Amino acid sequence: MLCGLTAGASAQMRDRYAERPGTGDVPVARVEDMTRQMCDRLRLNEAQYIRLRAANQIKAARLDEIQWQHKDDPTRRRALLSELEAQYEAECGRILTPSQLSLYRSEQQRDSVPTQTDPNEGGLG
C-alpha cells in the first residue's frame, strides 16, 4: 500500500512540474556556456569560476521562473527582472575583482545600448 501511495505522489509531482516549466532545473549546458564565456572575457580564477557558475545557475532558474509566472503581466515581469539583475550584479561584486567588475559593467552597457542605424539605409524609397 505504501508503494502505491509513493508512486501516485511521484506521478502527481511530475505532472505538476510538467505544467510549470519555469520551475524545473535549468539546463546545465546553458549555465556552463554562460559561465565559460564570462570566464574567457574576465579571466576568472577557479574559485571565481565556481562561485560565478553557482550565481549563474540561480539567476537562470529565477529568470525562467519570473518569465513563466508573470508572462501575462509585463510590468511586474520587468520590475522583477530588474530586481534580479540588481541582485546578480551585487553577487558579481562579491565575486569579481574591481577591474573584472569594471570590465563586466562596460560590456553590459555596450550590449544594452542599441546600435544607431541610418534611417535612410535599407529603405524602399
Structural class: mainly alpha
Instruction: Output the helix-strand order.
Output: HHHHH
Q: Give the quaternary arrangement of the chains.
A: single chain
Strand-residue proportion: under 5%
Spans of 5+ residues with little confidence (pLDDT < 50)? 1-7, 13-23
Radius of gyration: 20 Å
Mean pLDDT: 79
Please report the number of helical segments: 5
Q: Which shape, going by the Cα principal axes?
A: globular
Largest β sheet strand count, sense and barrel closure: none
Cα(first) to Cα(last) distance is 76 Å
Give the tally of β-strands.
Answer: 0
Helix content: over 70%
What's the layout of helices and strands?
Elements: H1 2-19, H2 28-42, H3 46-69, H4 74-95, H5 98-112
Helix pairs in contact: 2-3, 3-4
Structure, explained:
- There is one protein chain.
- This protein has 125 residues and is mostly helical.
- 75% of the residues lie in helices and 0% in strands.
- It is built from five helices and no strands.
- α2 packs across α3 and α3 (46-69) runs antiparallel to α4 (74-95).
- Residues 103-119 have a biased composition (Polar residues).
- Residues 103-125 are annotated as: Disordered.
